[in-house]
Design brief:
Blueprint lengths: L9 E3 L2 E5 L6 E7 L16 H11 L1 E5 L4 E3 L6 E7 L2 E7 L2 E7 L4 E2 L1 H5 L7 E4 L3 E7 H10 L1 H22 L6 H16 L1 E2 L5 E4 L3 H8 L3 H13 L4 E3 L2 E3 L3 H8 L8 H7 L2
Antiparallel strand pairs: 1-2, 2-3, 4-11, 5-10, 6-9, 6-11, 7-8, 7-10, 12-13, 13-15, 14-15
Length: 270
């Protein structure tokens, strides 16, 4: 789970920018565009170069999908997707209930199924235009069995999910506004796209999606978003969320971001 390292750019759509730690605004003089989004993907960067190259060149299928496309579902759960760009809702069944997680760049859809054939198959739906690398599940399992570096990267992906669950989703004692700010800040780190009025925004999740992810009622989410609008923390459009001040969003989330990260610096600043 990324928290904006001070020395690394943030992905906004298919471009990369640095953020000024003093102002919290994009430093457009430091704009960079790598030769390929794959170069900076949080998951793929952890892989040994030979495996990463083979993913890109032969093993994986790179493709973009439109909103509401079902990446994984009935009859389509035999593919692992590495998200390069976009926002995805992944639903995992647990008996008669299920959990919903909103994921972006660096997520590995179906990662737990690589380790455990008995793990419940998750479904995944694109919430906006989404670009992934797709790899057959059986191929991924075979590769993981023979490559320690890949196995460690997948394990880290699973660990990131566990950390995100504790930091973002399992904060039931907090007010809906605080929980929404935490989730929106998390999505901003992984799913940002160019904003209309401000530097960047999150697009794709509906208020129903936010409610499902946080296990809140739709009414609680609607009231929470209205409160955040009045506080000028969030500006909303149709399935879009812009942030006049990233610092204000991070501080309102009341998340203890890891020391030494840009998110920690911004949330702690006066």
């Amino acid at each position: 789970m990324g928290f904006w390292k001070p020395d690394e750019p943030i992905q906004i759509g298919s471009a990369f920018y640095t953020i000024d730690p003093v102002t919290g605004r994009l430093d457009r003089e430091a704009f960079s565009r790598p030769s390929h989004v794959i170069d900076r993907n949080p998951f793929l960067r952890r892989l040994p170069k030979d495996i990463r190259s083979s993913f890109h060149e032969s093993m994986a299928s790179s493709r973009s999908y439109g909103r509401r496309h079902v990446l994984r579902g009935v009859g389509t759960s035999s593919t692992i997707h590495i998200v390069l760009q976009g926002c995805v809702a992944e639903r995992t069944p647990f008996g008669s209930s299920s959990t919903v997680r909103l994921l972006g760049a660096g997520a590995v859809l179906g990662d737990t199924e690589i380790f455990d054939e008995r793990a419940p198959a998750s479904t995944a739906t694109c919430l906006n235009t989404t670009w992934t690398l797709g790899i057959p599940l059986d191929r991924m399992r075979a590769l993981a069995d023979g490559h320690t570096g890949l196995l460690k990267a997948i394990g880290r992906s699973v660990t990131d999910r566990m950390e995100a669950t504790e930091r973002i989703y399992n904060r039931h004692a907090l007010k809906p506004e605080q929980r929404l700010c935490g989730l929106l800040a998390h999505l901003l780190m992984h799913c940002a796209v160019p904003g209309r009025e401000y530097d960047f925004m999150v697009e794709g999740p509906s208020q129903n999606d936010l409610a499902d992810a946080l296990s809140l009622s739709l009414g609680s989410v609607e009231a929470g978003i209205a409160s955040l609008r009045r506080s000028n923390i969030v500006v909303t459009g149709y399935r879009s969320y812009e942030f006049p001040s990233v610092r204000r969003l991070l501080k309102a989330s009341e998340i203890n971001f890891p020391p030494g990260t840009l998110a920690n610096s911004l949330s702690a600043a006066d």
